[in-house]
Write a structure and sequence with these properties.
The complex is a heterodimer of chains A (113) and B (110). By secondary structure, chain A is mainly β. Helices cover 0% and strands 50% of the residues of chain A. The termini of chain A are far apart. Chain B has 110 residues and is mostly beta strands. Chain B is 0% helix and 54% strand. Chain B has no helices and eleven strands. In chain B, the strands form two sheets. In chain B, strands 2, 4, 5, 9, 10 and 11 form a six-stranded mixed beta sheet that branches. In chain B, β6 and β7 form a beta hairpin. Chain B is globular. The N and C termini of chain B lie far apart (36 Å). The model of chain B has no long low-confidence stretch (mean pLDDT 93). The chains are: A mainly beta (113), B mainly beta (110). The A-B interface holds A 4, 33, 35, 41-45, 48, 50, 55-58, 90, 92, 97-107 and B 2, 6, 30-31, 33, 35, 40-45, 48, 50, 88, 92, 95-103.
């Protein structure tokens, strides 16, 4: 079975632009969550999608939005990029929620200049 | 503020030594998980504990969930250089919110 794949692996954007990051979940998984990880820090939970509905959200502003598609793949959209948005963005998938652990992708490194 | 506090933040030990990493919170979690992350990679799940007082062993790693489901520990026996990495605890809170600790960076020297 394939694991979680994220694209692109690296991205450079200018402040004020918009960005879309993509994630393919592991086969058989119906839950996807997204995280922001700054250098030297633990990941921060952005939101979780279960069967195409957002069912959990961390302390991130509305300019962070997402989608989950019928095949359970997902997108993270960030509008009006700020310099502080520079980070590693991780996607993770699981079967039926978070209680039994997530499988993570390798992340997208976003740099905002 | 971090909902899950990990200690120590950094640990540098010789191969063969034992170590314990702690993960503490004032909140109750329905489950608590431990992950290991290497540079440039996503975290990899080591274990999930769901029952207060639960102890799980994976070869040289022992995980414990506190009776009140607010804290956990990870003990490594006879550390090896391959154990080097960032160890993260994570908990499932209310409203499907998922919290990571700030991590413990372990360096095992040969």
């Amino acid at each position: 079975e394939t694991g979680v794949t994220q694209s692109p692996t690296h991205l450079i954007k200018t402040r004020g632009q918009q960005v879309t990051l993509r994630c393919s979940s592991q086969s058989g998984h119906n839950t996807v969550s997204w995280y922001q990880q700054a250098l030297g820090q633990g990941p921060q939970f952005i939101f979780q999608y279960y069967r195409e509905e957002e069912n959990g959200r961390g302390n991130f502003p509305p300019r962070f939005s997402g989608l989950q598609f019928p095949n359970y793949s997902s997108e993270l959209n960030v509008n009006a990029l700020e310099l502080d948005d520079s980070a590693l963005y991780l996607c993770a998938s699981s079967r039926d929620g978070a209680n039994y652990g997530y499988t993570f992708g390798s992340g997208t490194r976003l740099t905002v200049v | 503020t971090q909902l899950l506090e990990q200690s120590p933040q950094f640990l540098s030990i010789q191969e063969g030594e034992n170590l314990t990493v702690y993960c503490n919170s004032s909140s109750v979690f329905s489950s608590l998980q431990w992950y290991r992350q290497e540079p440039g990679e996503g975290p990899v799940l080591l274990v999930t504990v769901v029952t207060g007082g639960e102890v799980k062993k994976l070869k040289r790693l022992t995980f414990q969930f506190g009776d009140a489901r607010k804290d956990s520990s990870l003990h490594i026996t006879a550390a090896q250089t391959g154990d080097t990495g960032l160890y993260l605890c994570a908990g499932v809170g209310n409203f499907n919110k998922f919290y990571f600790g700030s991590g413990t960076k372990l360096n095992v020297k040969p």
